[in-house]
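Table S4 entry, Sporulation protein SpoOM.
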Amino acid sequence: MSFFQKALASIGIGSATVDTRLDKDTYRAGEVMRGEIIVRGGQVEQQVDTIYLSVNTTYIRESNDHKHTEVAALQKVKVTEPFTLVVGEEKIFPISLTLPFETPISAGKTQVWIQTGLDIKNAVDPGDKDYIRVEPTALAGHILDAIGGLGFRLREAECEQAPSRFRGYYPFVQEFEFVPTGQYRKHLDELEIVFLSQSNHSAEILMQIDRKARGIGSFFAEALDMDESYVRTTITTHDLPTLQAKLQQIISKHI
C-alpha cells in the first residue's frame, strides 16, 4: 500500500464505496423498512468506525422575513461496530429500520430519503442517498380522505418549523392546506390540517379553520387573524364509522 494511494483514498479517490438497497421504494409511516447495505473496498485497506443510516427530510424555517430550507433527521441508527475493509473486499449488512409515525408523507414539495454513511478516519466519508415514497398511516389516510369527502381539495403540503407549543419530537410539522370546493366555499377561505402525533390507533390533529371575511368588521378581524379558529382533537380507529360526520360537525361549528 503506497503513501500515494493512501493520500488519494483520504480525498475519496480509490476509497471504499457504499450502496443501500431497500426491498421497495414505497413505505407507510410506521412500517419496517428492510434491505441491505453493500460496502466495497477500494484500492487501499481502510478502517471503518461505523455504518449509519438516517431518515431525513427538509422543512422551511422563517427568520427575518426570509425562508431557509433545513434538513431534519427523523431517525439515525448505528448499523455496525468498527471493522477493517481490505482492498477490493465486499461486505453485505442486512438492515431493518422502522419508519417513524411522524415521517411526513410524500405530497406536495415534501421529500424523504435514507442517508447511508461510512465513518472513516482521515478520509472523506462515502455515502449513499435513496429517496423513498411515504404513504400515510391507515388512520391518517382515512382522515385525509374524509376531508376530501367534505368537498375540500388539497392545495399544498409542506413541512414548516413548528411553534414551540405544537412541537413534538421534531422541530417541524407537515401542514396540509385545503381549499373548499363544495358546501363550504361560501364560508371558508381554507382549511389546514396538522398531525401533531400519531400511532396505529390514534392521531392528534390540529385544524385551522379560516373563515371568509364579511363586511368591514370581518375585514379587520381577518387582518388580525381573528377569523381563524384552531381546533385540537384526537381521532381514533373507533371514530372511523362516523369520521366524516365528526369532522363536518367540528368545521360547521366554526363558520
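The longest strand covers residues 46-63.
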